[in-house]
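Reminder to self: tokens first, then the designed residues, so the page reads top to bottom the way the pipeline ran.
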């Protein structure tokens, strides 16, 4: 592989970086859109390598440590652009390897019309980590509860749906069916219940920490003026998009979590299907849950600015479709508040919010 000359590297206009665990692959283009730089470096040599390169646009594929690398390069005077992986894939030529990936990233970075991922601050990354840990613990708790139910049903014992029903009746079942359930199975279920209690405590601790952050974060406080939006949604939204500068309008943010119909239009005929379910699944779930909470209390609808729309839509939509439409509206309102300031124009705040 030929070495890159100093004169060639001096004319670089765009660089693509394929980020690996220990090794980075770098491909740079000159003003004639020809490859002028092709190099493999260690992660520890990132700063040293880029200090010797001319300041230009640097493309990074959205992945682990992309925000750290972006922040490091920005401090050196470069213009980093974090690009979603689905945008770089069409530009990868030939078979997949690290250099071809870096070349495709560099080509994508030169396109001005592609949307890029906003660089997250350390506070956003910390808040996002809190939500991810909490989400993982909730999944583990659900798996633990389901395993307890599965072991009971193997003994011919069915318990009413709901975690509260299982918790309230579990020890009574083990005592009343002592002759039917073996001591070993009883011990296993007791251990699972201890895991359940431990997970509850950790989830509650993380939830309290998130709630404390929402009380002191100005953007979160403004978001919580929206019906159905509480500490979880407000902090998750701020962690994901900051002040929403990555989106030009509310409908773009509504589409990002996958709350809009999937489109397959051709020949001038628009064809819309189910929601796309692309983008941030966690935010989509939270907004849909918030919409369902609002729909549970129709007597409060007219107290909200969108109440008349909601009443009219409820007469022609299935409840699940209505919940998705309302979730999309809530997401667009949330973006508008973050981007333009102010609070939501409603007379009351819902008692139940996520």
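Designed residues (354 positions):
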């Amino acid at each position: 592989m030929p070495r890159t000359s100093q004169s060639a590297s001096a004319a670089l206009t765009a660089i693509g970086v394929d980020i690996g665990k220990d090794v980075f692959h770098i491909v740079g283009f000159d003003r004639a859109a020809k490859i002028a730089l092709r190099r493999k470096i260690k992660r520890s040599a990132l700063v040293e390598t880029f200090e010797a390169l001319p300041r230009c646009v640097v493309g990074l594929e959205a992945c682990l440590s992309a925000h750290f690398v972006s922040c490091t390069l920005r401090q050196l005077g470069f213009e980093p652009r974090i690009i979603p992986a689905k945008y770089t894939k069409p530009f990868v030529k030939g078979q997949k390897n690290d250099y071809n990936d870096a070349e495709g990233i560099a080509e994508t970075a030169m396109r001005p019309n592609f949307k890029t991922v906003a660089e997250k601050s350390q506070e956003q990354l910390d808040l996002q980590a809190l939500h991810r840990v909490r989400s993982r613990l909730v999944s583990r708790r659900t798996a633990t509860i389901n395993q307890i139910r599965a072991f009971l049903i193997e003994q011919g014992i069915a318990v009413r749906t709901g975690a509260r029903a299982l918790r309230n009746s579990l020890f009574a079942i083990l005592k009343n069916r002592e002759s039917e359930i073996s001591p070993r199975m009883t011990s296993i279920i007791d251990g699972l219940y201890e895991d359940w209690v431990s997970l509850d405590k950790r989830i509650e601790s993380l939830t309290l920490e998130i709630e404390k952050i929402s009380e002191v974060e100005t953007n979160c406080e403004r978001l919580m003026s929206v019906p159905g939006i509480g500490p979880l949604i407000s902090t998750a939204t701020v962690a994901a998009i900051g002040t929403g500068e990555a989106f030009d309008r509310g409908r773009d943010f509504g589409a990002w979590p996958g709350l809009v119909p999937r489109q397959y239009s051709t020949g001038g005929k628009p064809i819309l299907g189910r929601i796309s379910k692309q983008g941030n699944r966690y935010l989509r779930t939270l907004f849909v849950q918030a919409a369902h909470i609002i729909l549970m209390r129709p007597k409060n609808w007219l107290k909200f600015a969108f109440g008349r729309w909601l009443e009219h839509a409820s007469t022609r939509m299935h409840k699940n479709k209505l919940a998705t439409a309302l979730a999309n509206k809530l997401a667009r309102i949330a973006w508008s508040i973050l981007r333009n300031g102010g609070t939501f124009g409603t007379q009351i705040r819902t008692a139940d919010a996520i």
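The mean pLDDT is 91.
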